[in-house]
Design brief:
With 288 residues, this protein is mainly α. The chain has helices at residues 9-21, 24-30, 32-42, 48-72, 74-83, 108-129, 131-149, 157-176, 182-207, 209-214, 220-224, 226-250, 257-280. The chain has 13 helices and no strands. It is a multi-pass membrane protein.
Length: 288
């Protein structure tokens, strides 16, 4: 009888397309950031009610914003697939399907309903946690659209994307403590910003190098050149490493020194080593 309640293969396949629209595997990884920052500030998990509402709101927010990205880039992505489907082998955002609306697997109306539904849910949850969180969500949505529209305008749009990716973590701290000091918020913002630019934006644009060149995009690798972009990525990740170590050391959670040191060593291995190798091997196939 329980088996009758389970969705069939067709329904599961449809659900995967909507999850692909929101890049859910990527979004689930992003959710770790607000949870970690809330813990670092409080030194413990928040109350069960705040924790559950916060996790739902974070999921809804990332789901809505990633879908919004595909909505804003719909025409560009559609033209790309029509001209020559990109090679997405090994790309996290293509686990289910990359840009399902652009491929015609979902309609524009379905994508809009999905994004609006999750967006409204996220906005309500954020407001219940702290009205400031709702304001940050709206700001993030506006900046995400601006980021997409700057594709052929300026490579500095990467900085806009860096801001967008920091807002979830900042909002999480404000959700558990509306009086959190500016120094902690600023330190978290800078650490996440450096990580996003050096660890996600530049490598992702490197992956799409041929596609971006074909569509006349202005990205860091194309405008700065591969060598300078790789060095900028290394610099940003070095800054992220140092700022994160400082954040862990100064956080009210009171982490022991050996744990801060161990975390910093692991971050150095996972972040700096690949970035250094990237500067030594300027080849798209070796992109992080």
């Amino acid at each position: 009888m329980a088996a009758c309640c389970l969705p069939g293969p067709r329904a599961r396949a449809r659900l995967k397309l909507f999850l692909a629209l929101s890049r859910t595997p990527h979004g689930l990884l992003d959710m770790a950031t607000p949870l970690a920052l809330a813990f670092l500030w409080l030194g413990r998990l928040p109350s069960p009610g705040v924790l559950l509402l916060g996790m739902f709101t974070a999921f809804a927010g990332y789901t809505a914003v990633y879908a919004l990205n595909d909505l804003a880039d719909y025409r560009t992505d559609r033209d790309n697939f029509r001209d020559a489907p990109p090679d997405d082998t090994g790309f996290l955002d293509a686990v289910y399907a990359r840009h399902p609306m652009a491929q015609g697997l979902l309609t524009l109306r379905e994508g809009m309903l999905w994004a609006v539904g999750w967006g409204v849910a996220a906005l309500i949850g954020a407001y219940l946690l702290n009205p400031a969180c709702a304001a940050l969500l709206v700001l993030g949505c506006l900046l995400e659209v601006a980021y997409c529209k700057l594709l052929r305008v300026s490579h500095l749009r990467a900085l806009v994307n860096g801001v967008v990716k920091t807002l979830g973590g900042v909002a999480a701290v404000l959700a558990v403590d509306a009086q959190a000091p500016s120094w902690f918020l600023a330190l978290a913002f800078c650490a996440l910003f450096a990580w996003e630019v050096g660890g996600q934006n530049i490598p992702a644009d490197w992956f799409d190098l041929d596609l971006d060149r074909r569509q006349g995009a202005r990205t860091m690798p194309l405008v700065l050149g591969l060598e300078r972009a790789a060095r900028l990525s290394l610099f940003c990740l070095g800054a992220a490493l140092g700022l994160t170590a400082l954040l862990l050391a100064l956080a009210p959670a009171g982490l022991p020194w050996w744990l801060v040191l161990a975390a910093t060593a692991v971050n150095a291995r996972l972040l700096l080593l690949p970035a250094w190798e990237q500067t030594q091997c300027l080849d798209r196939g070796g992109a992080m």
